[in-house]
Design a protein that fits this description.
single chain, alpha+beta, five-stranded antiparallel sheet, 3 helices, 38% strand, globular
Length: 102
């Protein structure tokens, strides 16, 4: 088992506004990435558990929304580990766009 991919994204929105922006965000992000589909997205308080599929491989993880940051942790199967660095950069960029104050 590999170490999980962890991305932490700071924000200044507060927990409630960050959660409002993130709900449904995984499905919207997957819609713009042809090889990615969402199998599960479930919220329990400030934690979203999810399971996604890419290139026939399943990755599972969770996202915790805190007052000043969002922390995503996902365990990638060996085939998707090759794309971990690119995924980390993409998640960081999309997360910052979504969580930037407007």
């Amino acid at each position: 088992m590999s170490a999980p991919l962890v991305v932490s994204i700071p924000h200044s929105l507060g927990r409630d506004e960050a959660m409002r922006r993130l709900k449904g965000g995984l499905s919207r992000a997957a819609a713009s990435v042809p090889v990615l589909s969402v199998d599960e997205e479930r919220w329990d308080n400030n934690r979203m558990s999810f399971r996604v599929r890419a290139l026939g491989q399943v990755a599972a993880g969770h996202l915790d929304v805190e007052d000043a940051y969002v922390r995503l942790e996902v365990t990638l199967p060996w085939l998707l580990q090759r794309f971990a660095e690119a995924a980390q950069i993409a998640i960081q960029k999309r997360g910052q766009l979504l969580l930037t104050k407007r």
